[in-house]
Structure formats: structure tokens, C-alpha cells
């Protein structure tokens, strides 16, 4: 698949040393594509990482867990936990923006980029949208061109450790160019769609585009 030009250049971001001593790709300058200030309008910077979710933390079993990719793809795949962890991965320094009005800067997430995952399955030419699925039944959606970016990570690591369960471990999506309800916690699959559909909060009036610099919180 040839991914759309999103305005970012792969592989040329600043490389820094992370908390665990490994290389980190710094993508905190992402905001320049969308606005003039790193802190989006209507947001306040916080140091802690609040816990917000649809319901409680779901159970998971690494022996039976699978990550399923299907829909408008060339090869539908189901990854066991070890298989998913074996995909090429990287650590990125990102900012995190919650629709409720707080932002946390300089988070270090480790995982598989969306472009790596999509390359692994191949994307049909008529695919236009992506639906994310999670262990707790949560869903969220984005246009394909908003997902097919190196900054979108399926992350299992946070600040040098595993992502805590309450923050979406073992695996969550992070979307630094969108409000964080687009980053499904406890994610266990994606479906490529040939026409748009709506996830849990989108069905309840939240924005599909969710651009923090445009304050696109609600439809």
C-alpha cells in the first residue's frame, strides 16, 4: 500500500535517549502540522496521568489473547501476544491530549507503528476508514489517512515499563494528533472499512475528527 502524504517525513524525526537508555524518536513537534502552540487551545498541562475509561479494567490472558486485523485488507491476520510483540517496534516521545481538557507532555510509548501493522496485512484500495476494537467492548473510529501515520502506535510500553493495566495494558493505541478517546485502551483488533462507521463515543455525539488544535470535541 502507498500511504497518503500526511505532512510528516518518516525516519527524520529527532532521535533522543529514552528513560531506559534506548533511542527514542521525538515526535513532540507534531503540533506544527495542526496549530501554532504545542498545548492545544482549551487544554491545561498536567504531570500526573489520570485514569479514564468506559467501565472497569477488563481481564486478559496472554495465552488466549489475539489481535485480529480484518475487513478490507489483503491478508486478514490474527496475532498471538508473542507474535504481535515480535513485529518491528520503536519508542516515541509523544504528547497526550484528553478531550476532558488536560494534556501530558513527553510521554514515552513503545510499540508497533500503525504503518508497520498495515504493511504487514496489506490494505485494499477501497479501504477508507478504520474501526478499533477493545477487550471491554469499546470501539472508536478514524479515517484511514489519520491512522496510516508513523506517530500512531499500538503501544505496550510506557516510560520504560509495561503500560499499566489501568492505562490500557497490555496494549493500547496512542494518537498524539487526536484527542485520546481515539486511542483505544486494551485494544485487541482493527477492522478496515470501505465506508465510515461510528465507534462508541462517536455514536454519542463526540467528534469523528477529534483535532485538539481545532477543539473538535463534539460533532
From TrEMBL:
<dbReference type="InterPro" id="IPR036374">
    <property type="entry name" value="OxRdtase_Mopterin-bd_sf"/>
</dbReference>
<dbReference type="InterPro" id="IPR000572">
    <property type="entry name" value="OxRdtase_Mopterin-bd_dom"/>
</dbReference>
<feature type="domain" description="Oxidoreductase molybdopterin-binding">
    <location>
        <begin position="57"/>
        <end position="201"/>
    </location>
</feature>
<dbReference type="Pfam" id="PF00174">
    <property type="entry name" value="Oxidored_molyb"/>
</dbReference>
<protein>
    <submittedName>
        <fullName>Sulfite oxidase-like oxidoreductase</fullName>
    </submittedName>
</protein>
